[in-house]
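The following record pairs a protein chain with its ligand, heme C.
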Amino acid sequence: MICIQIRIANCLAAITLLAATSADAGESADVIKQRIGSGDPVAGKSKSTLCQSCHGEDGLSVEDLIPYLAGQYSAYIIKELRNFQTGARKHPIMNTMAKTVNDADLADIAAYFASLDKMQGGGWGKNTVAKNLFLKGDMSRNIQPCVSCHGINGKGKAPDIATFPVIGGQHKAYLRAQLINWRDGQRTNSPGGVMNIIAKSLTDPEIEALTDYISGL
Ligand code: HEC
Ligand code: HEC
């Protein structure tokens, strides 16, 4: 009996600790709820089996050119899906995939991925060039600091500002591909072309350093 009580006490302590850790990471229930939006994550889970086959059941894809969707803003996921549907964002696989989703299911599917534990990097590589660009930018070259839009550690701004995707902890190869797409004008779907303007000035070594840094956050 005593033994069971001790176990329960330990368990409660562990739960409290977990809750404290999540709160530290800004993941309160309220924050997660706002990120999920109006869709139903439970319905979304069963509606997204096809998506999960590439993006992972936990939203953490294995293939490094397939982005993590875990903890991404539902509003951003919905916007990208619509952009893939209309061809405003081009990718042969996703242009086809997006057409399999109807409007009614889209909010639920996005809610499911948004409800998952947010993508998390394994630590940054101590590259101060990248850290400076991320935190301070270089206004002489039109590079606004990434942190000003993508938030602290690239984890997004307030959950009700879903224009700016979570990028911290995303796959490095995917981030690199997107920055190159923005720079080359292959991807043009950011509001006001802001990411094209920023990426235009980034050199290859800067993209390498930045994506290494951001994927670790
Ligand atoms: C066969 C693999 C595959 C399947 C299945 C798939 N995706 Fe994707 N998805 C990708 C790849 C690859 C990309 C990266 C596209 C790029 O490079 O622009 C992507 C990108 C995305 C993005 C953009 C994420 C970002 O950070 O900008 C979203 C959102 C997305 N997929 C949602 C879905 C949904 C919802 C489904 C199910 C209807 C789905 N995907 C099915 C491979 C897949
Ligand atoms: C003025 C605001 C702003 C700044 C500053 C900014 N971004 Fe962005 N970024 C955006 C927006 C908005 C999007 C989403 C575009 C869309 O709607 O598809 C985005 C998208 C991205 C994406 C694609 C994410 C994905 O999941 O596909 C990457 C990578 C990215 N930004 C990297 C950076 C880096 C690196 C910096 C700093 C050098 C930076 N951004 C600075 C606004 C900004």
